[in-house]
Design goal:
2 strands, globular
């Protein structure tokens, strides 16, 4: 039996222009101000590196939700490398990638934590 739940297409595959998706002059102005105040990539900083952020990432993907899109608490400064690789992979997997200094998974919802391992 087929799943009756309609599949939502990825917002990344949206064929509209960036401006039509909300990345217009107003966004570019807000983005520039945010990066001026938050110039370093958060992911690189966590790795002990200093890299200029060039992208404002939406921590929770907005998927067209304007309230979430403009919520500055949902923004983080990142470099293009992390945005296009690590973050894209995390979104695809719906999980935080990596581990802490003890080798434990960074994602608190990782299945490893639910298996009774102390």
């Amino acid at each position: 039996m087929a799943d009756p739940t309609p599949k939502r297409s990825s917002w990344r595959g949206d064929k509209r222009t960036a401006a039509q998706r909300g990345y217009d002059y107003k966004w570019r102005k807000a983005r520039a101000a945010f990066l001026k105040q938050n110039p370093l990539c958060q992911y690189c900083e966590e790795d002990g590196k200093v890299t200029l952020a060039t992208v404002v990432n939406h921590i929770i993907p907005h998927q067209g939700d304007e309230t979430l899109f403009w919520d500055m608490d949902n923004w983080q400064p990142v470099c293009k490398k992390h945005h296009d690789s690590t973050i894209a992979l995390e979104e695809a997997r719906n999980a935080k990638i990596g581990g802490d200094s003890s080798g434990n998974p960074a994602d608190p919802n990782h299945h490893w934590y639910g298996r009774g391992v102390a």
